């Protein structure tokens, strides 16, 4: 069996995110093997250990007094499980399924960002089922990075998106002083602006003034950073994209990774892509 990290998003038919819902994961015999709880926007992950190819798993939970049961996707007969962690390095753990023992065409791991290859490394499991790859973050671009494991025929064994933030697109942080609680109509406004970090190179800024009472809340609060570096790289609408960059802490990084695991999932017809079968 293979250890698999699974991500999900739980919503109602109307699209309401179901947060703080406990979900039990059952094996084919109906035994609870693990549990998880939905968090931000109804997303969560759980780890399945020693997954067998013929096994079928189910997720069960309660909502508003009713019991629900959802069959999980079928387990692939063979493949490579891929898990990612980040600190100063991008740490990638690969685990092959038991029946996958020979790669006559060779095996490689490639990281791409915005359609541009960042690194390509040969993978050799030897006689082991697990191997690890580490990549310095300074070798990768800020934005969504696509990790792909494939062989010389073009068969894709694993694919995963992750977000790398080297902070080279961070805006200068500015302290603003002199704002009064209330102003008379047409009264002059004097503000004092000061860079928090004297090393910042900002020499000019843009200023917009609006009436807070007329402000409308919207789910689409994207900026050029969120649109170019995030939303354009994954499927579907990214709700409240500014949230993922309002702080660079463990909670926001985890929620961003969950977004990429859910909306960044994809499946390939690799034989068509490699020209083995007609498109």
Termini separation comes to 33 Å
Please describe the biggest sheet, giving its number of strands, its sense, and whether it closes into a barrel: 4 strands, antiparallel
SSE pattern: EEEEEEEEEEEEEEEHHH
Number of DSSP E strands: 15
Mean pLDDT across every amino acid position? 88
In terms of DSSP E residues, the strand content is 35-45%
Broad shape: globular
Full CATH superfamily name of the domain at 81-167: Immunoglobulins
User: Which second-level CATH architecture of the domain at 81-167 applies?
Assistant: Sandwich
Name of the CATH class of the domain at 81-167 = Mainly Beta
Give the strand line-up of the largest sheet. 3-2-5-6
Specify the number of helices: 3
Q: Radius of gyration over alpha carbons?
A: 23 Å
What is the CATH third-level topology name of the domain at 81-167?
Immunoglobulin-like
């Amino acid at each position: 069996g293979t250890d698999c990290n699974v991500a999900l998003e739980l919503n109602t038919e109307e699209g309401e995110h179901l947060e703080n819902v406990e979900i039990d994961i059952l094996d084919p015999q109906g035994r609870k093997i693990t549990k998880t709880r939905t968090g931000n926007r109804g997303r969560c992950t759980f780890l399945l250990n020693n997954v067998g190819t013929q096994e079928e798993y189910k997720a069960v939970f309660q909502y508003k007094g009713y019991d629900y049961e959802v069959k999980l996707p079928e387990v692939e007969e063979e493949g490579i499980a891929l898990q990612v962690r980040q600190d100063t390095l991008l740490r990638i753990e690969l685990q092959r399924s038991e029946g996958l023992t020979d790669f006559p065409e060779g095996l490689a791991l490639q990281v791409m960002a915005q359609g541009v290859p960042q690194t390509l490394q040969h993978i050799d499991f030897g006689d082991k089922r697990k191997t690890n790859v580490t990549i310095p973050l300074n070798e990768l671009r800020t934005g969504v990075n696509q990790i792909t494991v494939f062989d010389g025929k073009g068969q894709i064994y694993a694919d995963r998106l992750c977000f790398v933030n080297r902070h080279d697109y961070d805006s200068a942080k500015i302290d603003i002083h002199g704002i009064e609680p209330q102003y008379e109509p047409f009264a002059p406004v004097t503000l004092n602006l000061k860079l928090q970090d004297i090393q910042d190179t900002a020499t000019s800024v843009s200023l917009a003034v609006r009436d807070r009472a007329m402000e409308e809340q919207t789910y689409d609060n994207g900026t050029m950073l969120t649109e170019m570096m995030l939303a354009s790289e994954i499927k579907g609408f990214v709700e409240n994209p500014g949230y993922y960059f309002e702080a660079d802490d463990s909670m926001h990084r985890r929620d961003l990774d969950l977004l990429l695991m859910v909306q960044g999932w994809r499946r390939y017809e690799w034989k068509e892509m490699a020209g083995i079968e007609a498109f």
